[in-house]
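Tutorial, part two.
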Amino acid sequence: MIQKIYNYFWSKDKYFIRNIREQLGFVPKNLFLFKQAFIHKSNQDPSYQISNERLEFLGDAILSTIIAEYLFNKYIYEDEGFLTKMRAKIVQRKTLNKVGKDLGLDVFLKHYNQLKLSDSMLGNALEALLGAIYIEKGYSYTKNFVIDKILQDHLDIHSLEKKDENFKSRLLEWCQKHSKELEYELVEKYRHQKRDRFKVAVLVDGKIIAEASEFNKKGAEQLASQKAMSSLGLIKVPVQG
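Running the prediction step on this input gives:
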């Protein structure tokens, strides 16, 4: 308790603490842990020798477990396939990036990183923050935070039920239905904004249909699949970029 009071009133990071308290509902005791959640591995400031990657790893696992438990209890008559698809929609990078932005995590990221922020950094920071919350407050508190702050305040579960944005899976189903061979080829791996970026091509029956780049291979495959579906006339909305 004494450490929390000191952090809130006298710490040099008291403004960070007061801002993050509005999001978390408590004053962090382990201040270093919560600052670490917002330090990206590509940060240009040499004074930071740490990153949020380990916390992101932990938060990703905790989030997946909480979402699985929540969906299991909510949809008591649905099968494993439905639950798996619903969990994928919630924990997909695009969804977490949006939630991270809605929570205002970009403010904390800008404070601790001297580089241009990308959407994926918001989702990564959200997972890292969940990892920090879990370490300090335990599973029960983290579970309530995810349900209240993410699932209820910033996501529409019923809308997600009707949305299918797994373009890779949809493209595979179409290819199988029409006896076509689907392949993904890594065209190039390069550095952009001091981060690895992957360029992936989608091939149908050996012909390149679309290409796309992202900061991770899976994301590039999804975006390339979306572009391929647009090129093949399988979706109406053209893909930008």
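Residues 2-162 form a domain with the Ribonuclease iii, N-terminal Endonuclease Domain; Chain A fold (CATH 1.10.1520.10). In part three we will examine how such features are distributed along the chain.
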